[in-house]
Specification:
heterotrimer; A mainly alpha; B alpha/beta; C mainly alpha; B: Rossmann fold; globular; C: mainly alpha; MetI-like fold; 2 domains
C-alpha cells in the first residue's frame, strides 16, 4: 500500500525527466552534426571539462560576484523601498523616475558601466548585477510597505509601538511576501547579468568560459557549460525556495487556509 | 412601552451621568466632541456634531446607534487614531492627542488586527515588550491573559490557524494583558456566528467583573448592548448627537437564558429599539443638551 | 468555513479621510518634479565636472543626440526591428504558454507528471542558450526569437497553470452536472478564471521579452537598438549611447503601460485585481 504510493510519487517525480533524457540520448546517439553531439559524449566530456581547478577559477568567481551584487541590491532595495513606502510624498516624487529605471532592460547597463569602471575587473560586473537586481526589489518593497493592512497599522499605533518596533515587527514582516516576489525576480535577472557581464572584454568566469568554448568550436564542452549553468540556475532557485518557505511559512499557511485547502 | 416607564428610564440615565461628572473616578470623559471630515476636493461630511458623556472607572458602557451613526468614527476619535475637529477626549485626566497610553482597542476585523507572522503568544507579548515589562513578568501576564480567555492550549499557534471566535479571543487577551485603564471594543463580534457571539459576550462580562477593567463597547446590536452594558449610550443618525443615555438596571449576574427572557430586559431592549427607530427616521434631540455642555466649555 | 457567508456582515468601514482625487493630481506634479530634479542633477554633475563628462555627458547633449537620431532612417529601422522582435517572440510565447498550460492544467495527472520537469527547466537562465543560438542562427533575428521565446514561455506557462488550478471546484462540478462538454467547460469556466493570471503572465512576459530581445541584440549582434548601443559605446560616441539607452528605457515604460492597459481592458468586469503569484 505504502510502497505503491511511494512508487507512484517516484514515477511522477522522475518519470518525465527520465523519458526526456532517454529521448535525448537515443536521438543524439549516432549524431554527426557538429552542433548536436551525442549526449553520451557530452556527459563524458563533463568531468574532464569542469575539473576542480576550473570550478575554482571560473565558477566560484562568477558566483561570488553574483552573491555580492545581489546582496547589495537586497540591502539597498529593502532600505530604500521601506523609506519610500513609508513616505507618500517621497514616493510621489520618485515614482516616475523609478518606473523608468525599472523599465530599462538591465543588459544595457553594461555599456554604460563599462564607460565608468571598465569591464575587466570585478567592480563593473558587481555594479551591473547590483543595479539590475535593485529595481524589482525596491519597487516591490515599496508596494509591500504601502499595502500594509491598515488595521494592523492602527493596532500598532494604539499599542504605542515605537518606530523601531513597528518597522521590525510590523512593517517588514507585512511587506515580506512582496519583498520575496521582488527578490525572486531579481535573482533570475542577476543570473542573466552574471553571464552577460562576462561577455565583454577579456574575462574569466562561467559565462566567459562557455562563449570561449563556442568561439573555439569546442561544442561538447560548450554543451557541458550550458548544462552546468542550467544546474546552477536550478540550484539557486532551490536555495531561494528553502529560504522563502522558512521565512514566509506564516504567509503560505494563511493563504492555504484562506483558499480552503 | 408606557410613557411612565420611559420617563423613569430617562431619569435614571440622567442620575448616572450626573454621578459620573461629579466624582473624580471618571476614567473617560468626552467634552463637546465634534468631528467633520474636511477633505479638499470633496464635500464636507459632518460625522459627529456634538457628544458629551463620561464613563466612570470600572463601568461597562455600550454605544449603539443606527448604521452610519458614526460609531466607528467616535471610537477611532477616542482611541486617538483620528483628530477631532473640536472638543476633547480626556482619559485619566489627560487630554487625548494621539493614541493614549492607557487604552487598548479590540477591532472588529479580528483576522486583520492580529499579526499573522507571529504566534498567539508573540502577538500578546509585543505590546508588553514595548511597555518595558521584564521577561518573567511578561510571561506571567501572557499566561494569565490566555487562561482568562481560555486559550492556553493555542499559545504557540498562529492566529490564522484558529477559528474566528478564537482569533477574537486572542485580540481580547492581548488587550487585557496590556492592562489598560479603558478597553475599547469596536463591534468586536460582528463577524462571528451567533453561538460564538454569545460565548464571547459572556467572556466580556466575566473579564469585566474579574479584572475590574473599564469597557466601552461599540455595537450595532441592541440586544447585545442591553445584555452587556451597565449603561447604553444611544446615538442619533448623522451628524451624531446623543439620543439618550440609558441606564441598564439589570442584576449584575447575567446569563444568556434568564437575563434575555427577563421582563425588564425586554422593556429596556424595547426602549432602546424605539430610540434607534426614531433615530433612523431622523428624529433627534434638536440642540446639544445645554446643561451638560456649558460648564465643560469653560 | 471561510467561504460561508457570516450571519452579520461586517459593517462598512467608516468614511476615512482620503485625499484621493486632489491627491492624485498633486502626486502627478510631484512626479514631474522628481523627473526634473534627476535631469537637472545629472546636468549639473556633468557641467561642474563632479562626474567626468566623458562618462556622463550633460543631459542636454544626450537629448541633442537623441533628436539627431530621430532624423535618421537607420534609427527608425533599428527601433522597428527591436519592437518587432519583441512582439513576435512575446506573441509566440503567449500562444504556446497558454495552449500548453491549458492542456497540462486541465488534467491532474499531467500536472503532477510534468511538475518536476517544469520546476527544473524554468530556472535555467535563457542566456545559457546564447552560444547555441549563435551557432545555429548567428546574428539572424531567429537567435533573439529563441531566447525571447524560451524566457517568456515559462513565465506564461507557470501563471496559466496557477490560473487553471485556481478554478473553483464547485463551478467545475456545476458545469459537469449540467453535462457541459470539455470545450464548453474550458471556455465558460476555466478561461474566465484563468484570464487574470493570463494577464499577469502577459505583463511579466512582456518585460522579460524586452530584456532578452535587447540582450540578444547587444551580446550577439542581432540588428536592433541593442546592437546600436554596443556600436555607439565601442566607437566612443557617449551621448548617443545614453540617448539610445533612454530610448530603450522609454520603450520599457511603454511596454509596461501597454501591458497594464491591456490588463485593465480585459479585466474591466473582474472584481479584483490579482496579485502576482510567481
Amino acid at each position: 500500500m505504502n510502497a505503491a504510493r511511494l512508487a507512484r510519487r517516484a514515477f511522477m517525480l522522475l518519470g518525465l525527466p527520465l523519458i526526456l533524457l532517454a529521448a535525448w540520448w537515443v536521438a543524439s546517439a549516432g549524431s554527426t552534426s557538429p552542433f548536436w553531439p551525442p549526449l553520451q559524449t557530452i556527459l563524458e566530456t563533463f568531468p574532464k571539462t569542469w575539473t576542480w581547478d576550473r570550478i575554482v577559477s571560473d565558477v566560484f568567481p562568477s558566483l561570488a560576484r553574483l552573491g555580492i551584487g545581489y546582496a547589495l541590491a537586497v540591502i539597498v532595495g529593502i532600505v530604500a523601498g521601506t523609506a519610500i513606502g513609508l513616505m507618500p510624498r517621497l514616493r510621489a516624487l520618485s515614482e516616475p523616475v523609478l518606473e523608468f529605471f525599472r523599465a530599462v532592460p538591465p543588459p544595457v547597463l553594461v555599456p554604460i558601466i563599462a564607460l565608468f569602471a571598465g569591464y575587466t575587473g570585478w567592480l563593473g560586473k558587481i555594479v551591473t548585477i547590483a543595479l539590475g537586481c535593485l529595481w524589482p526589489i525596491l519597487l516591490n518593497t515599496v508596494e509591500g510597505v504601502r499595502g500594509l493592512e491598515p488595521v494592523l497599522t492602527d493596532t500598532a499605533r494604539s499599542y504605542h509601538l515605537s518606530r523601531w518596533r513597528r518597522l521590525v515587527f510590523v512593517v517588514l514582516p507585512g511587506a515580506s511576501p512582496r519583498i520575496f516576489t521582488g527578490a525572486r525576480q531579481a535573482l533570475s535577472i542577476g543570473v542573466i547579468l552574471m553571464v552577460i557581464s562576462e561577455l565583454f572584454g577579456a574575462n574569466r568566469g562561467l559565462g566567459a568560459a562557455i562563449v570561449q568554448f563556442q568561439r573555439s568550436f569546442a561544442i561538447p564542452q560548450m554543451w557541458t557549460g550550458i548544462i552546468l549553468l542550467g544546474l546552477i540556475g536550478v540550484m539557486l532557485a532551490a536555495i531561494f525556495k528553502v529560504v522563502e518557505s522558512r521565512m514566509l511559512a506564516w504567509y503560505v499557511g494563511q493563504r492555504q487556509i484562506e483558499r480552503g485547502e | 412601552m408606557s410613557i411612565i416607564q420611559s420617563v423613569r428610564l430617562r431619569s435614571a440615565a440622567a442620575d448616572a451621568t450626573a454621578a459620573g461628572r461629579v466624582g473624580d473616578d471618571v476614567a473617560l470623559d468626552l467634552r463637546s466632541v465634534q468631528k467633520t471630515y474636511d477633505t479638499p476636493g470633496r464635500p464636507q461630511v459632518e460625522a459627529i456634531r456634538h457628544l458629551d458623556f463620561s464613563i466612570r472607572r470600572g463601568e461597562l458602557v455600550c454605544v449603539v446607534g443606527p448604521s452610519g451613526a458614526g460609531k466607528t468614527t467616535l471610537l477611532r476619535s477616542i482611541a486617538g487614531l483620528l483628530d477631532l475637529t473640536a472638543g476633547e477626549v480626556v482619559l485619566d485626566g489627560e487630554v487625548v492627542a494621539g493614541p493614549p497610553q492607557g487604552m487598548a482597542v479590540v477591532f472588529q476585523e479580528y483576522g486583520r488586527s492580529l499579526f499573522p507572522w507571529m504566534t498567539v503568544r508573540q502577538n500578546i507579548e509585543l505590546p508588553l515588550k514595548e511597555k518595558g515589562i521584564a521577561k518573567a513578568e511578561r510571561h506571567a501576564k501572557i499566561d494569565r491573559a490566555l487562561e482568562e480567555v481560555g486559550l492556553t492550549e493555542a499559545a504557540e499557534q498562529h492566529p490564522w490557524q484558529l477559528s474566528g471566535g478564537m482569533q477574537q479571543r486572542v485580540a481580547i487577551a492581548r488587550a487585557i494583558a496590556f492592562e489598560p485603564s479603558v478597553l475599547l471594543m469596536d463591534e468586536p463580534f460582528a463577524a462571528v456566528d451567533a453561538q460564538t457571539r454569545a460565548e464571547l459576550e459572556d467572556l466580556v462580562r466575566k473579564l469585566w467583573k474579574d479584572l475590574g477593567v473599564t469597557v466601552l463597547f461599540v455595537t450595532h446590536d441592541i440586544d447585545e448592548a442591553v445584555y452587556l452594558g451597565e449603561r447604553v449610550i444611544v446615538l442619533s443618525n448623522r451628524p451624531t448627537v446623543l439620543m439618550e443615555d440609558v441606564r441598564v438596571d439589570l442584576p449584575s449576574e447575567r446569563d444568556q437564558l434568564t437575563t434575555r427572557s427577563d421582563a425588564h430586559f425586554g422593556e429596556l431592549r424595547g426602549h432602546v429599539y424605539e430610540l434607534i427607530q426614531r433615530a433612523k427616521r431622523g428624529d433627534r434631540p434638536d440642540a446639544p443638551p445645554a446643561a451638560a455642555s456649558s460648564p465643560q466649555e469653560a | 468555513m471561510t467561504t460561508t457567508p457570516t450571519a452579520a456582515p461586517p459593517a462598512p468601514r467608516a468614511a476615512r479621510p482620503r485625499t484621493r482625487r486632489s491627491g492624485r493630481r498633486n502626486d502627478a506634479w510631484l512626479g514631474v518634479l522628481g523627473v526634473l530634479i534627476v535631469l537637472a542633477g545629472a546636468e549639473l554633475l556633468s557641467r561642474t565636472g563632479i562626474v567626468n563628462p566623458d562618462f556622463l555627458p550633460p543631459v542636454t547633449e544626450m537629448y541633442a543626440s537623441l533628436f539627431q537620431l530621430l532624423g535618421e532612417g537607420s534609427f527608425w529601422e533599428s527601433l522597428w526591428l527591436t519592437v518587432r522582435g519583441w512582439a513576435v517572440g512575446l506573441a509566440a510565447a503567449m500562444a504556446l504558454g497558454v495552449l500548453v498550460g491549458f492542456v497540462i492544467g486541465s488534467s491532474r495527472f499531467l500536472r503532477e507528471f510534468t511538475n518536476s520537469t517544469v520546476e527544473f527547466l524554468r530556472p535555467i537562465p535563457s542566456v545559457a542558450l546564447i552560444p547555441l543560438v549563435v551557432l545555429m542562427f548567428g546574428t539572424k533575428p531567429a537567435s533573439a526569437f529563441l531566447l525571447v521565446l524560451y524566457a517568456a514561455f515559462w513565465q506564461v506557462l507557470v501563471q496559466v497553470l496557477y490560473g487553471v488550478a485556481d478554478v473553483d471546484p464547485v463551478a467545475r462540478d456545476t458545469a459537469r452536472s449540467y453535462r457541459f462538454g470539455p470545450l464548453r467547460v474550458a471556455r465558460s469556466v476555466i478561461y474566465p478564471t484563468a484570464l487574470p493570471y493570463i494577464m499577469t503572465a502577459f505583463r511579466l512576459a512582456a518585460a522579460v521579452a524586452l530584456i532578452l530581445e535587447i540582450t540578444a541584440e547587444l551580446v550577439i549582434g542581432v540588428p536592433g537598438l541593442g546592437r546600436d548601443i554596443g556600436i555607439a559605446q565601442s566607437s566612443g560616441n557617449v551621448p548617443e549611447t545614453y540617448a539610445l539607452v533612454i530610448v530603450v528605457g522609454l520603450i520599457g515604460v511603454a511596454v509596461n503601460l501597454f501591458a497594464r492597459f491591456v490588463e485593465r481592458k480585459a479585466l474591466w468586469w473582474h472584481p479584483s485585481v490579482r496579485s502576482e503569484v510567481a
